[in-house]
Request: fold
Amino acid sequence: MAYWVLRSEPDAYSWDDLVRDGATEWNGVRNYTARNFLKEMAVGDEALFYHSNTEKAAVGIMAVTRTWQPDGDDGKWASVAVKPVRPLAHPVTLAAIKAEPKFAELMMLKQSRLSVSKVEPDEWALLLKMAEG
DNA sequence: GCCAACGTTGGC
DNA sequence: GCCAACGTTGGC
Reply:
């Protein structure tokens, strides 16, 4: 069981869109590091849905429902299927994440442009605590 | 709107 | 294969 952050601009595809759709194919990732993480994902892995740009906060929890399949025509890219699990009671803002010293090593902070990043179990637990506590 | 970070491209 | 130039992204 692994944990991830998946980032999207809410203007392009938001948590509400995902809830409305009931599930989605997380495609369009065109970065090799991010793609490699998509290929690592297993069914049952959980991921935070992070709204970049206008909102800058994690707003919900998703689950991976199918491992990767090719995305695009050239076979270089990958996508996975996800579904919403539940919204966060309190969205965790980027500002709150940056203010917490325990997130110093959080990949999402260290590689701020990466749209798919990994979360360690202890980091995941703390994120959920902040979201639901 | 600007800037920093960083990935990609193209010339050598 | 290296590196400068350029484009894109995300945060401020």
